[in-house]
Amino acid sequence: MEIDNSYEVLVYGGTVAGITAALAAARSGRKTILIERSNHFGGMVASGLGLVDSLRENAFGGIHTEFLSEIRNFYEAQYGPDSDQYNLTLGGRFMEPSTSEKILDEMIAVEANLQAFKQLELIEVIKEDNIVISSRYQDRVNKNTILIQHKASIDGTYEGDFAAAAGVNYR
User: Fold this and answer.
1) Cα(21)–Cα(9) distance, integer angstroms
2) Torsions phi, psi of 61, nearest 5?
3) Residues 86 and 93 sit within 8 Å (Cβ to Cβ)
4) Is pLDDT above 80 for 73?
5) Straight-line distance from the first to the last Cα atom of the chain, in angstroms, rounded to the nearest whole number
6) Is residue 36 within 8 Å of 118, Cβ to Cβ?
7) How would you classify the pairing of strands 32-35 and 114-117?
8) Which H or E run contains 18?
9) How many whole angstroms separate alpha carbon 106 and alpha carbon 115?
């Protein structure tokens, strides 16, 4: 897949929050790009933390509920509805990190308005009159530099990398 030069929404950070933001933007008809620095989407739930932080089913809704449903569907199809593996998910809230990554990758892949790329590292955020208009990335594999224009940007990282690069005040 080739990167376009212009998007309505750019999300930097392939954490669950970043993916959720990208999916929501794409599903509302916005041409969206999701960029992750590493080689994996999903953040902590796809790299070691195999649980969702709440045991209350009514604590979440929307895309998060869809994700939990897909986790349940995976374990039910793979092992059966009466299996220990399915029952130990506690409604989809506990899962293997590889399963989380697989489900999130599938959710990303089916969105027509969403392009997603891994291994792109933020180099700079470009502003005009204190408004973010674009950002530049380096492909961590081939070292090429990519400039992407966007009307809106969302920082989906844990550390606020995009916001810091944009000069957003923080303490």
Assistant:
1) 10
2) -155, -170
3) no
4) yes
5) 38
6) yes
7) parallel
8) helix 16-27
9) 13
Handedness of CA 36, 115, 19, 127 (dihedral sign): positive
- Please state, in angstroms and rounded to a whole number, the distance separating the CA atoms of residues 57 and 154: 27
Contact at 8 Å (CB) between 168 and 158?
no
Strands 120-128 and 131-139: antiparallel
Q: What are the tens digits of pLDDT across the range 101-157? A: 999 999 999 999 999 999 999 999 999 999 999 999 999 999 999 999 999 999 999
Nearest Cα neighbor of 120 from 102, 144, 153, 149 is 144
Q: How far is CA 131 from the centre of its chain?
A: 24
Torsion of CA 30, 161, 167, 23, to 10 degrees: 10
Contact (CB, 8 A) for 72 and 88: no
Residue 54 has pLDDT above 70, yes or no: no
- Supply the angle between the helices 97-109 and 62-79 in degrees, to the nearest 10: 120
Length of the chain in residues, anyone? Answer: 171
